[in-house]
Amino acid sequence: MVSFRLECAASRRKWAGAQKLTCGFLFPVLSVRFTVVSDPPEDEQDLECEDIGLAHVSLSKMFSRGKDIIEQDIDVFDSQNDGIVIGKLKVTVEALGALRSICEEL
After folding, report:
1. Which of 31, 66, 71, 78 sits at 20 to 30 Å (Cα–Cα) from 93?
2. Is there a domain that residue 89 lies in?
3. Nearest-10 Cα torsion for 46, 47, 49, 52
4. In terms of Cα–Cα distance, which of 58, 18, 55 is closest to 36?
5. How many domains does the chain have?
6. What does pLDDT average to over the chain?
7. What would you measure as the largest C-alpha separation in the chain, in angstroms?
């Protein structure tokens, strides 16, 4: 558990900077995770999908950069060996407005 106290001067500009810093502490590990799966073969539809790869988008980086991610290629890592890139995934993640709304409520 993280506990801290934040005191700010009346200056709105100073508060905006402190608020951004505070929200940065709240979003350090938040990310959107994508799982790439394989479909079962046509003749074996009773089998389950199999995880092939994983990709993620860091919401903290998105928040600190102040931009949504629009049609960006991200690395897909092998689900069995996390260090190996096996492909790219083109994603759009529009979450900046929601993240800012959360921070405004603090």
Report:
1. 78
2. yes
3. -160
4. 55
5. 1
6. 76
7. 68
